[in-house]
Records
---
Amino acid sequence: EAGVAQSPRYKIIEKRQSVAFWCNPISGHATLYWYQQILGQGPKLLIQFQNNGVVDDSQLPKDRFSAERLKGVDSTLKIQPAKLEDSAVYLCASSLVDGGTEAFFGQGTRLTVV
Amino acid sequence: KQEVTQIPAALSVPEGENLVLNCSFTDSAIYNLQWFRQDPGKGLTSLLLIQSSQREQTSGRLNASLDKSSGRSTLYIAASQPGDSATYLCAVGTGANNLFFGTGTRLTVIP
Protein backbone atom coordinates (compact mmCIF):
# COMPACT_ATOMS: atom_id res chain seq x y z
CA GLU A 1 0.00 0.00 0.00
CA ALA A 2 1.43 3.38 -0.98
CA GLY A 3 1.94 5.85 1.83
CA VAL A 4 1.18 9.54 2.10
CA ALA A 5 3.07 11.45 -0.58
CA GLN A 6 4.27 15.01 -0.12
CA SER A 7 6.20 17.41 -2.31
CA PRO A 8 8.51 19.18 -2.41
CA ARG A 9 10.78 17.71 0.29
CA TYR A 10 12.64 20.96 0.83
CA LYS A 11 11.95 24.59 0.02
CA ILE A 12 13.90 27.78 0.71
CA ILE A 13 12.20 31.11 0.09
CA GLU A 14 12.67 34.73 1.06
CA LYS A 15 10.26 36.37 3.47
CA ARG A 16 7.18 37.86 1.86
CA GLN A 17 7.33 35.31 -0.96
CA SER A 18 4.63 32.68 -1.44
CA VAL A 19 4.96 28.90 -1.35
CA ALA A 20 2.70 25.90 -1.89
CA PHE A 21 2.92 22.33 -0.65
CA TRP A 22 1.17 19.30 -2.08
CA CYS A 23 -0.12 16.13 -0.42
CA ASN A 24 -1.61 12.93 -1.77
CA PRO A 25 -3.14 10.80 1.03
CA ILE A 26 -3.45 7.04 1.22
CA SER A 27 -6.13 5.82 -1.15
CA GLY A 28 -9.51 5.58 0.55
CA HIS A 29 -8.58 7.77 3.51
CA ALA A 30 -11.30 10.37 3.94
CA THR A 31 -9.56 12.44 6.62
CA LEU A 32 -6.53 14.56 5.76
CA TYR A 33 -4.48 16.72 8.11
CA TRP A 34 -1.82 19.38 7.75
CA TYR A 35 0.52 19.78 10.71
CA GLN A 36 3.29 22.31 11.36
CA GLN A 37 6.32 21.11 13.30
CA ILE A 38 8.74 23.76 14.49
CA LEU A 39 12.22 22.52 15.40
CA GLY A 40 12.25 20.92 18.86
CA GLN A 41 8.46 20.86 19.17
CA GLY A 42 5.72 18.35 18.51
CA PRO A 43 3.52 18.75 15.44
CA LYS A 44 0.66 21.22 15.72
CA LEU A 45 -2.54 20.83 13.71
CA LEU A 46 -3.16 23.53 11.12
CA ILE A 47 -6.21 22.14 9.34
CA GLN A 48 -8.22 18.94 9.14
CA PHE A 49 -10.39 17.90 6.19
CA GLN A 50 -12.98 15.19 5.97
CA ASN A 51 -13.43 14.46 2.28
CA ASN A 52 -13.35 17.99 0.83
CA GLY A 53 -14.91 19.72 3.83
CA VAL A 54 -13.00 21.49 6.62
CA VAL A 55 -13.47 19.93 10.07
CA ASP A 56 -11.06 22.10 12.05
CA ASP A 57 -9.03 25.12 10.97
CA SER A 58 -9.00 26.92 14.29
CA GLN A 59 -5.19 27.10 14.44
CA LEU A 60 -4.63 28.06 10.82
CA PRO A 61 -3.31 31.65 10.47
CA LYS A 62 -5.91 32.54 7.90
CA ASP A 63 -4.40 35.92 7.06
CA ARG A 64 -1.52 34.15 5.33
CA PHE A 65 -2.25 30.41 5.20
CA SER A 66 -4.83 28.71 3.01
CA ALA A 67 -5.57 25.10 2.17
CA GLU A 68 -7.87 23.25 -0.12
CA ARG A 69 -8.74 19.66 -0.87
CA LEU A 70 -10.40 19.40 -4.23
CA LYS A 71 -12.47 16.30 -5.00
CA GLY A 72 -11.70 14.95 -1.53
CA VAL A 73 -8.31 13.52 -2.49
CA ASP A 74 -5.17 15.66 -2.99
CA SER A 75 -4.59 18.76 -0.93
CA THR A 76 -2.48 21.89 -1.20
CA LEU A 77 -1.33 24.20 1.59
CA LYS A 78 -0.26 27.72 0.66
CA ILE A 79 1.54 30.44 2.56
CA GLN A 80 1.38 33.99 1.24
CA PRO A 81 3.29 36.04 2.29
CA ALA A 82 5.76 33.93 4.26
CA LYS A 83 7.35 35.12 7.51
CA LEU A 84 10.58 34.00 9.14
CA GLU A 85 8.61 32.21 11.87
CA ASP A 86 6.97 29.99 9.26
CA SER A 87 10.23 28.05 8.98
CA ALA A 88 9.20 24.53 9.97
CA VAL A 89 8.42 21.07 8.67
CA TYR A 90 4.94 20.79 7.21
CA LEU A 91 3.52 17.31 7.64
CA CYS A 92 0.53 15.84 5.88
CA ALA A 93 -1.31 12.88 7.39
CA SER A 94 -4.37 10.82 6.54
CA SER A 95 -6.69 8.38 8.27
CA LEU A 96 -9.92 6.52 7.68
CA VAL A 97 -13.04 8.48 8.45
CA ASP A 98 -13.93 6.77 11.75
CA GLY A 99 -12.77 8.30 15.00
CA GLY A 100 -10.04 6.37 16.75
CA THR A 101 -8.31 5.17 13.61
CA GLU A 102 -4.59 5.23 12.98
CA ALA A 103 -3.04 8.28 11.32
CA PHE A 104 -0.28 7.86 8.74
CA PHE A 105 2.18 10.63 7.97
CA GLY A 106 4.13 11.67 4.92
CA GLN A 107 7.83 12.55 4.89
CA GLY A 108 7.10 16.24 5.30
CA THR A 109 8.25 19.40 3.56
CA ARG A 110 11.02 21.35 5.28
CA LEU A 111 10.48 25.07 4.70
CA THR A 112 13.19 27.62 5.40
CA VAL A 113 12.25 31.28 5.18
CA VAL A 114 15.25 33.62 4.95
CA LYS B 1 -7.60 22.03 25.87
CA GLN B 2 -5.60 18.81 25.81
CA GLU B 3 -1.97 19.14 26.93
CA VAL B 4 0.49 16.31 26.31
CA THR B 5 3.81 16.06 28.16
CA GLN B 6 6.68 13.68 27.53
CA ILE B 7 9.44 12.95 30.02
CA PRO B 8 12.37 12.78 29.71
CA ALA B 9 13.11 15.14 26.82
CA ALA B 10 16.28 13.19 26.02
CA LEU B 11 17.63 9.83 27.05
CA SER B 12 20.92 8.01 26.39
CA VAL B 13 21.27 4.30 27.13
CA PRO B 14 23.83 1.62 26.32
CA GLU B 15 22.85 -0.99 23.79
CA GLY B 16 20.89 -3.91 25.21
CA GLU B 17 19.17 -2.00 27.99
CA ASN B 18 15.43 -2.00 28.48
CA LEU B 19 13.90 1.47 28.73
CA VAL B 20 10.63 3.27 29.37
CA LEU B 21 9.39 6.49 27.81
CA ASN B 22 6.60 8.39 29.52
CA CYS B 23 3.66 10.37 28.22
CA SER B 24 1.00 12.18 30.23
CA PHE B 25 -2.13 14.02 29.13
CA THR B 26 -4.52 16.34 30.92
CA ASP B 27 -7.94 15.36 29.52
CA SER B 28 -8.85 11.69 29.93
CA ALA B 29 -11.69 11.90 27.37
CA ILE B 30 -9.66 10.42 24.54
CA TYR B 31 -10.41 8.07 21.68
CA ASN B 32 -6.93 6.62 21.36
CA LEU B 33 -3.24 7.19 21.92
CA GLN B 34 -0.61 6.69 19.27
CA TRP B 35 3.17 6.38 19.58
CA PHE B 36 5.31 7.54 16.67
CA ARG B 37 8.97 7.43 15.78
CA GLN B 38 10.66 10.31 13.96
CA ASP B 39 14.13 10.06 12.46
CA PRO B 40 16.06 13.30 11.79
CA GLY B 41 14.69 15.11 8.75
CA LYS B 42 11.98 12.52 8.23
CA GLY B 43 8.26 12.20 8.76
CA LEU B 44 6.51 10.24 11.49
CA THR B 45 6.29 6.46 11.52
CA SER B 46 3.40 4.97 13.48
CA LEU B 47 4.58 2.41 16.04
CA LEU B 48 1.55 1.50 18.13
CA LEU B 49 -2.07 2.59 18.42
CA ILE B 50 -3.97 1.97 21.65
CA GLN B 51 -7.74 2.46 21.64
CA SER B 52 -9.27 4.06 24.72
CA SER B 53 -10.84 0.72 25.70
CA GLN B 54 -7.48 -1.08 25.63
CA ARG B 55 -4.78 -1.26 28.28
CA GLU B 56 -1.79 -2.14 26.12
CA GLN B 57 -0.48 -3.02 22.69
CA THR B 58 2.63 -4.92 21.69
CA SER B 59 4.68 -5.02 18.53
CA GLY B 60 7.97 -6.92 18.57
CA ARG B 61 10.23 -5.33 21.19
CA LEU B 62 7.78 -2.50 21.82
CA ASN B 63 5.00 -2.46 24.38
CA ALA B 64 2.74 0.51 25.01
CA SER B 65 0.40 0.81 27.96
CA LEU B 66 -2.47 3.19 28.60
CA ASP B 67 -4.01 4.27 31.90
CA LYS B 68 -6.75 6.63 30.83
CA SER B 69 -7.97 7.47 34.33
CA SER B 70 -4.57 8.74 35.42
CA GLY B 71 -3.77 10.31 32.05
CA ARG B 72 -0.62 8.29 31.43
CA SER B 73 0.96 6.09 28.80
CA THR B 74 4.32 4.38 28.66
CA LEU B 75 6.34 2.98 25.78
CA TYR B 76 8.61 0.12 26.80
CA ILE B 77 11.48 -0.81 24.51
CA ALA B 78 13.18 -4.12 25.25
CA ALA B 79 16.79 -4.91 24.45
CA SER B 80 17.50 -1.53 22.85
CA GLN B 81 19.58 -1.34 19.66
CA PRO B 82 21.46 1.56 18.03
CA GLY B 83 18.83 1.51 15.27
CA ASP B 84 16.26 2.53 17.88
CA SER B 85 17.90 5.95 18.13
CA ALA B 86 15.25 8.49 17.12
CA THR B 87 12.72 10.89 18.61
CA TYR B 88 9.62 9.20 20.02
CA LEU B 89 6.38 11.17 20.02
CA CYS B 90 3.10 10.32 21.68
CA ALA B 91 -0.15 11.75 20.39
CA VAL B 92 -3.59 11.69 21.95
CA GLY B 93 -6.59 11.28 19.66
CA THR B 94 -9.78 13.17 20.43
CA GLY B 95 -13.35 12.74 19.28
CA ALA B 96 -12.78 14.88 16.23
CA ASN B 97 -9.97 12.50 15.25
CA ASN B 98 -7.49 15.28 15.90
CA LEU B 99 -4.12 14.38 17.38
CA PHE B 100 -2.46 16.37 20.17
CA PHE B 101 1.27 15.74 20.29
CA GLY B 102 3.86 15.89 23.01
CA THR B 103 7.27 17.43 22.33
CA GLY B 104 8.95 14.05 22.13
CA THR B 105 11.77 12.12 23.78
CA ARG B 106 15.05 12.02 21.88
CA LEU B 107 16.56 8.55 22.40
CA THR B 108 20.19 7.69 21.76
CA VAL B 109 21.28 4.07 22.05
CA ILE B 110 25.04 3.84 22.43
CA PRO B 111 26.76 0.82 20.81
---
Amino acid sequence: GENVEQHPSTLSVQEGDSAVIKCTYSDSASNYFPWYKQELGKGPQLIIDIRSNVGEKKDQRIAVTLNKTAKHFSLHITETQPEDSAVYFCAASIGRDDKIIFGKGTRLHILP
Amino acid sequence: DVKVTQSSRYLVKRTGEKVFLECVQDMDHENMFWYRQDPGLGLRLIYFSYDVKMKEKGDIPEGYSVSREKKERFSLILESASTNQTSMYLCASSLYSDTEAFFGQGTRLTVV
Protein backbone atom coordinates (compact mmCIF):
# COMPACT_ATOMS: atom_id res chain seq x y z
CA GLY A 1 0.00 0.00 0.00
CA GLU A 2 0.91 3.66 -0.11
CA ASN A 3 3.56 4.85 2.31
CA VAL A 4 4.58 8.46 2.95
CA GLU A 5 7.86 9.32 4.67
CA GLN A 6 8.36 12.82 6.09
CA HIS A 7 11.55 14.56 7.28
CA PRO A 8 12.60 16.10 9.55
CA SER A 9 10.41 15.27 12.55
CA THR A 10 11.42 18.53 14.25
CA LEU A 11 12.71 21.74 12.70
CA SER A 12 13.79 24.99 14.36
CA VAL A 13 14.47 28.08 12.27
CA GLN A 14 15.17 31.70 13.08
CA GLU A 15 12.30 34.10 12.42
CA GLY A 16 12.68 35.48 8.90
CA ASP A 17 14.62 32.46 7.62
CA SER A 18 13.22 29.75 5.32
CA ALA A 19 11.96 26.31 6.31
CA VAL A 20 11.89 23.21 4.10
CA ILE A 21 10.06 19.97 4.84
CA LYS A 22 10.49 16.95 2.58
CA CYS A 23 8.33 13.93 1.83
CA THR A 24 8.63 10.83 -0.30
CA TYR A 25 5.85 8.51 -1.41
CA SER A 26 5.88 4.91 -2.54
CA ASP A 27 2.98 4.48 -4.98
CA SER A 28 3.71 5.93 -8.41
CA ALA A 29 -0.07 6.07 -9.04
CA SER A 30 -0.43 8.85 -6.44
CA ASN A 31 -1.69 12.03 -8.06
CA TYR A 32 -2.64 14.42 -5.28
CA PHE A 33 -0.27 15.82 -2.62
CA PRO A 34 -1.74 18.11 0.05
CA TRP A 35 0.00 19.79 2.98
CA TYR A 36 -1.79 20.38 6.28
CA LYS A 37 -0.97 22.61 9.24
CA GLN A 38 -2.10 21.65 12.72
CA GLU A 39 -2.12 24.24 15.48
CA LEU A 40 -2.38 23.32 19.13
CA GLY A 41 -5.81 21.96 20.08
CA LYS A 42 -7.13 22.00 16.53
CA GLY A 43 -7.59 19.60 13.65
CA PRO A 44 -5.25 19.86 10.63
CA GLN A 45 -6.09 22.45 7.98
CA LEU A 46 -5.08 22.45 4.33
CA ILE A 47 -2.49 25.11 3.47
CA ILE A 48 -1.51 24.13 -0.06
CA ASP A 49 -1.81 21.19 -2.43
CA ILE A 50 -0.35 20.07 -5.73
CA ARG A 51 -1.42 17.60 -8.39
CA SER A 52 0.81 15.29 -10.38
CA ASN A 53 0.50 17.28 -13.58
CA VAL A 54 2.22 20.30 -11.98
CA GLY A 55 5.81 20.67 -10.81
CA GLU A 56 5.50 23.68 -8.53
CA LYS A 57 2.82 25.79 -6.89
CA LYS A 58 3.13 28.96 -4.86
CA ASP A 59 0.83 30.85 -2.53
CA GLN A 60 2.41 33.95 -0.96
CA ARG A 61 5.14 32.70 1.42
CA ILE A 62 4.36 29.02 0.87
CA ALA A 63 5.43 26.88 -2.07
CA VAL A 64 5.32 23.19 -2.87
CA THR A 65 7.50 21.35 -5.40
CA LEU A 66 6.92 17.90 -6.84
CA ASN A 67 9.42 15.56 -8.49
CA LYS A 68 7.39 12.66 -9.89
CA THR A 69 10.41 10.76 -11.14
CA ALA A 70 12.01 10.68 -7.71
CA LYS A 71 8.65 10.51 -5.91
CA HIS A 72 9.58 13.50 -3.75
CA PHE A 73 7.59 16.56 -2.79
CA SER A 74 8.60 19.44 -0.53
CA LEU A 75 7.07 22.34 1.36
CA HIS A 76 8.94 25.65 1.41
CA ILE A 77 8.05 28.47 3.79
CA THR A 78 9.91 31.74 3.26
CA GLU A 79 10.24 34.72 5.63
CA THR A 80 9.00 32.63 8.53
CA GLN A 81 6.89 34.26 11.24
CA PRO A 82 5.97 33.20 14.80
CA GLU A 83 2.51 32.11 13.65
CA ASP A 84 4.14 29.53 11.38
CA SER A 85 5.00 27.49 14.49
CA ALA A 86 2.85 24.34 14.23
CA VAL A 87 2.91 20.71 13.14
CA TYR A 88 2.92 20.19 9.38
CA PHE A 89 1.77 17.01 7.63
CA CYS A 90 2.28 15.95 4.04
CA ALA A 91 -0.09 13.46 2.44
CA ALA A 92 -0.64 11.51 -0.76
CA SER A 93 -3.71 10.14 -2.46
CA ILE A 94 -4.24 7.87 -5.42
CA GLY A 95 -7.62 8.98 -6.59
CA ARG A 96 -11.26 9.76 -6.14
CA ASP A 97 -12.45 6.80 -4.09
CA ASP A 98 -9.32 5.94 -2.24
CA LYS A 99 -7.62 6.86 0.95
CA ILE A 100 -5.39 9.77 1.95
CA ILE A 101 -2.17 8.66 3.63
CA PHE A 102 -0.31 11.10 5.87
CA GLY A 103 3.32 11.44 6.83
CA LYS A 104 4.28 11.42 10.51
CA GLY A 105 4.45 15.18 10.76
CA THR A 106 7.09 17.86 11.32
CA ARG A 107 7.01 20.10 14.37
CA LEU A 108 8.22 23.53 13.23
CA HIS A 109 9.52 25.99 15.82
CA ILE A 110 10.13 29.60 14.79
CA LEU A 111 12.76 31.11 17.07
CA PRO A 112 12.61 34.84 17.95
CA ASP B 1 -18.57 27.80 6.38
CA VAL B 2 -17.75 24.10 6.10
CA LYS B 3 -17.98 22.07 9.23
CA VAL B 4 -17.02 18.66 10.60
CA THR B 5 -18.31 18.12 14.11
CA GLN B 6 -17.18 15.41 16.49
CA SER B 7 -19.60 14.62 19.29
CA SER B 8 -17.13 14.88 22.19
CA ARG B 9 -13.94 16.80 22.80
CA TYR B 10 -12.84 14.63 25.74
CA LEU B 11 -13.97 11.15 26.72
CA VAL B 12 -12.96 8.81 29.55
CA LYS B 13 -14.05 5.18 29.33
CA ARG B 14 -13.32 1.98 31.20
CA THR B 15 -11.56 -1.06 29.76
CA GLY B 16 -14.06 -3.38 28.10
CA GLU B 17 -16.68 -0.72 27.46
CA LYS B 18 -18.23 -0.26 24.04
CA VAL B 19 -17.43 3.25 22.82
CA PHE B 20 -19.06 5.25 20.05
CA LEU B 21 -17.36 8.26 18.47
CA GLU B 22 -19.68 10.26 16.26
CA CYS B 23 -18.80 12.55 13.38
CA VAL B 24 -21.15 14.72 11.32
CA GLN B 25 -20.34 16.84 8.25
CA ASP B 26 -22.57 19.43 6.63
CA MET B 27 -20.88 19.65 3.23
CA ASP B 28 -22.56 16.74 1.42
CA HIS B 29 -19.14 15.10 1.07
CA GLU B 30 -18.78 11.61 -0.36
CA ASN B 31 -15.68 10.57 1.60
CA MET B 32 -15.27 10.34 5.34
CA PHE B 33 -12.26 9.19 7.33
CA TRP B 34 -11.27 8.22 10.85
CA TYR B 35 -7.66 8.71 11.97
CA ARG B 36 -5.90 8.33 15.26
CA GLN B 37 -3.07 10.66 16.19
CA ASP B 38 -0.29 9.59 18.53
CA PRO B 39 2.99 11.41 19.31
CA GLY B 40 5.70 10.42 16.85
CA LEU B 41 3.31 8.35 14.74
CA GLY B 42 1.40 11.09 12.95
CA LEU B 43 -2.06 10.45 11.55
CA ARG B 44 -2.85 6.79 10.99
CA LEU B 45 -5.93 5.80 9.01
CA ILE B 46 -8.34 3.48 10.81
CA TYR B 47 -11.26 3.27 8.35
CA PHE B 48 -12.70 5.31 5.52
CA SER B 49 -15.95 5.39 3.59
CA TYR B 50 -16.60 6.72 0.10
CA ASP B 51 -20.37 6.20 0.11
CA VAL B 52 -23.28 5.42 2.39
CA LYS B 53 -23.03 1.90 3.83
CA MET B 54 -19.58 1.48 2.23
CA LYS B 55 -16.46 1.09 4.34
CA GLU B 56 -12.84 0.27 3.69
CA LYS B 57 -10.12 -0.70 6.15
CA GLY B 58 -7.25 1.66 6.62
CA ASP B 59 -3.85 0.81 8.05
CA ILE B 60 -4.88 0.04 11.65
CA PRO B 61 -8.47 -1.29 11.69
CA GLU B 62 -7.96 -3.92 14.40
CA GLY B 63 -10.19 -3.34 17.42
CA TYR B 64 -12.40 -0.85 15.56
CA SER B 65 -15.50 -0.91 13.40
CA VAL B 66 -17.44 1.84 11.64
CA SER B 67 -20.94 2.65 10.54
CA ARG B 68 -22.21 4.96 7.81
CA GLU B 69 -25.97 4.76 7.58
CA LYS B 70 -26.40 8.35 6.37
CA LYS B 71 -24.15 10.39 4.12
CA GLU B 72 -23.46 13.06 6.73
CA ARG B 73 -22.61 10.75 9.65
CA PHE B 74 -19.67 8.41 10.17
CA SER B 75 -19.35 6.58 13.47
CA LEU B 76 -16.29 4.88 14.91
CA ILE B 77 -16.97 2.01 17.30
CA LEU B 78 -14.60 0.46 19.80
CA GLU B 79 -16.27 -2.87 20.54
CA SER B 80 -14.31 -3.45 23.75
CA ALA B 81 -12.09 -0.54 24.67
CA SER B 82 -8.53 -1.25 25.74
CA THR B 83 -5.87 1.01 27.26
CA ASN B 84 -3.82 0.95 24.03
CA GLN B 85 -6.71 2.73 22.32
CA THR B 86 -6.10 5.81 24.43
CA SER B 87 -5.44 8.43 21.76
CA MET B 88 -6.63 11.49 19.87
CA TYR B 89 -9.21 10.54 17.24
CA LEU B 90 -9.75 12.78 14.23
CA CYS B 91 -12.61 12.59 11.76
CA ALA B 92 -12.34 14.13 8.30
CA SER B 93 -14.47 14.49 5.20
CA SER B 94 -13.76 15.38 1.58
CA LEU B 95 -15.71 15.53 -1.63
CA TYR B 96 -13.27 13.01 -3.11
CA SER B 97 -9.96 11.70 -1.75
CA ASP B 98 -8.08 13.95 -4.17
CA THR B 99 -9.72 17.13 -2.89
CA GLU B 100 -9.31 19.08 0.34
CA ALA B 101 -10.12 17.18 3.52
CA PHE B 102 -11.78 19.02 6.38
CA PHE B 103 -11.08 17.84 9.90
CA GLY B 104 -13.08 17.92 13.09
CA GLN B 105 -11.54 19.29 16.28
CA GLY B 106 -10.69 15.81 17.55
CA THR B 107 -11.78 13.60 20.44
CA ARG B 108 -9.23 12.83 23.10
CA LEU B 109 -10.17 9.37 24.39
CA THR B 110 -8.71 7.98 27.58
CA VAL B 111 -9.33 4.33 28.43
CA VAL B 112 -8.70 3.48 32.08
